[in-house]
Amino acid sequence: MFGNKKELEKEKGTKQEQEQEQEKKKTKEQEKEKKQTKEQEQKQEQEKEKEKEKEQEKEKEQEQKQEQEKEKEKEKEQEQEQEQELTSIVGFGSNIYFGIQAEADHKKKFSGIQQNFTKEYVAKATIEIPNYVDKMKNGNLEEKYKATQQIRILLSVEKDPPIENILKCEGIFTTLDQFLDLDEKQELQFEALWCISNILAGSTEDVKRVIEAGSLPKLIKFLDSSKNALQEQCIWAIGNIAGDCAELRDRVLEHEVIPKLIETLKSNTTTRIISCTLWALSNIFRFEPQPKISEIMILMDLLCDHLNNESTNIAQEACLLLFDLTRYDQNNIEHIMKTDICKKMAELLNHPLKAISVPTIRFFGNVVTGTTEQTQEAINSGILPILYKLFQKRDQNQR
Description:
Belongs to the importin alpha family. InterPro entries: ARM-like, ARM-type_fold, Armadillo. The chain is mostly helical. The chain folds into 2 domains: about 100-255, Leucine-rich Repeat Variant (Alpha Horseshoe); about 270-399, Leucine-rich Repeat Variant, CATH 1.25.10. It has helices at about 1-90, 120-125, 130-140, 140-155, 165, 170-180, 185-200, 205-210, 215-220, 230-240, 245-255, 255-265, 270-285, 295-305, 310-325, 330-335, 340-350, 355-365, 370-380, 385-390, and strands at about 100, 110. Helix 13 (about 270-285) runs parallel beside helix 15 (about 310-325) and helix 15 (about 310-325) packs parallel to helix 18. The longest helix has about 90 residues, at about 1-90.
């Protein structure tokens, strides 16, 4: 009996141990499940965080895209405002076009509409030139404006404009100079500026006559104009003087125009003015001796940006300016090597437009005339395989 009791107690103890073991096992399983659940929750939280980050990145990208689109829209609006401004000043209506018509050497340009009149019309209008000039000098304000406009139209004739017939009229330069001083009459100022910029696209003698008449200081003051239309005509004028010869280029440099042109590149976003300013700077560096400028690295950084511009006109003028900058001065090549210009220019060697690819090839032709290090830098930019392919083409300009 006593033995049975012990056995019962023993069985009871064993059963309790088993129950405790099961309880422990159950507790461990519950803890394991809790741990797994917690890990799953953490994983889900991490995935949610990742999703949230992705969404935020997408939102950020969309915002950046929207900002870029807004910037483009803003630029378009500025272009449209500029067109409206020009239209209102000129008075020709919405069909006005400010194109670039280059002469054979690409260095002197007529500004504005290239009027394609018949020889008969030009001959008849040429006879009226003395009457137009007389009204410019002696007429009322409206007559002065219309007469100056007629002179400007004749100076914009596409072929053989009657520049000489206009310049031989007594007092023409004095009258145009007087109009440049009429800040309260910007329409007349603009017509006078336009006349002068197209006269400066003529012969060396024509340019000298404008300078000798004392017009240069008055022209250059319009570089600081708040009106893009007036500023642009001023840049045309500077570019045409500088592109004529080294002697006349130096007359322009006496007025410290390079810092002002660089400031225009920095502050103005209008495609036409940027393109025109790059062209004017290219003419300034076209002749020996090239001017030394303290802003050379600022200019290099600006050119680096403009090489990737969506406007092919700006990219083209930037390439031409870099070609002219590297023509004579190895110091300029050295400054270029401190930027990403070589790499960006190498990307333009294959450009479909010859107006961009040809000056780019010539640029590298200048660079490899420099030091061994400069030549190696050009090679490192990856030009050799591209040049080899271009050499195999039949295009004589590129070869």
